[in-house]
Amino acid sequence: MIQVYPSPEQFLHDMQPLLEKDEAATSLILGLSMQMQQQAMPHKARFFGLLEGRRAVGCAMQTAPDKGLLLWARPHNYARFCVEMLPYLVERAPHFPKVLGPEPLAADFATAYARSLGMSSFMELNQGVYRLDEVALPPAAPGRLRTAQPEDLLTLTRWTLDFAWEAMQDALPRHEAEIMVAAKISRGQLYVWENGQPVCMAGFARPTRNGVSIHYVYTPPPFRGRGYASNCVALLSQYLLHEQHFAFCTLFTDLNNPISNHIYQKMGYRQIAHFATYALMKNEH
């Protein structure tokens, strides 16, 4: 049975037990829905669940009408999820521009979904989900970690625009980036590595019952290769584990960038899942 949920509260009532079986791997869909629930703000998100009686089998979520469809099911239910969720969404839901989720579920779903609409799909992002339980600190870099301040807004907005394009090929509107950065600064969720001037940033978001996600890791090209990002992420992770008392941190990496993956592995992050984003495009005739 497919269930459509009008609110994150109702979605989490049915799906949170399933998602928390793999709390680190589901940090994106679980963390986003919990964030919406806690902030109690108006949203345009859409929530879908696949149920067998009262038991959750899988779920999907779209955070806004122009965003992709985020999927989750456990591996033994991948085939069933595609068979049951796909026809429902094709018939009753508007077109989703992208599909993202664990592999090979994301690939299978995106291929079948695109075909049903007379379209094609292609991999846009190839990502690893990493988990950290204890930090191995890298060699010290000059500078220090500090929370971002309002006077950093213009610099960090510019970096966020560069990060969005470089990491996700997302041409984020400047006013949206500025609103996002200002909100993260006001909540104390954005940090910079400072060495005479800000040289790197990293943030955290989407806390779940036991974990929290690191994101917005970005070093402008002139400051790369000096250990700033390694120290920034390692010390921020250590702060979240030891002082904020999270059991683990998660982050998404670009699996096509072996250098960054190696850096994260050296500080104790280990890959626990493989995620991908597929974009849909019209077939040329």
Which secondary structure elements does this structure contain, and how are they paired or packed?
Blueprint: E1 2-5, H1 8-19, H2 27-39, E2 46-52, E3 55-62, E4 69-73, H3 78-92, E5 98-102, H4 105-116, E6 119-132, E7 144-147, H5 153-168, H6 174-186, E8 190-194, E9 198-205, E10 211-218, H7 228-242, E11 248-254, H8 258-266, E12 270-282
Parallel strand pairs: 4-5, 10-11
Antiparallel strand pairs: 1-2, 2-3, 3-4, 5-12, 6-11, 6-12, 7-8, 8-9, 9-10
Helix pairs in contact: 1-2, 3-4, 5-6
The computed structural class is alpha+beta
Helix and strand string, N-terminal first? EHHEEEHEHEEHHEEEHEHE
CATH architecture of the largest domain: 3-Layer(aba) Sandwich
- Averaged pLDDT, please? 95
CA-based gyration radius: 19 Å
Strand order of the largest sheet: 1-2-3-4-5-12-6-11-10-9-8-7
As a percent range, the share of strand residues is 25-35%
Number of domains: 2
The total strand number stands at 12
- Helical percent range? 25-40%
Distance between the termini: 37 Å
Helix count equals 8
Global shape: globular
Describe the sheet with the most strands. Answer: 12 strands, mixed
Q: What's the CATH topology label of the largest domain? A: Aminopeptidase
Q: Spell out the CATH superfamily of the largest domain.
A: Gcn5-related N-acetyltransferase (GNAT)
CATH class of the largest domain: Alpha Beta
Poorly predicted sequence stretches spanning 5 or more consecutive residues:
none
Structure commentary:
The protein has eight helices and twelve strands. The chain is α+β, with helices and mostly antiparallel strands and 285 residues long. It has two domains: 2-127 and 276-282, Gcn5-related N-acetyltransferase (GNAT) (Aminopeptidase), CATH 3.40.630; 134-246, 3-Layer(aba) Sandwich (Aminopeptidase). The protein has a twelve-stranded mixed beta sheet, with helices on both faces. The model has no long low-confidence stretch (mean pLDDT 95).
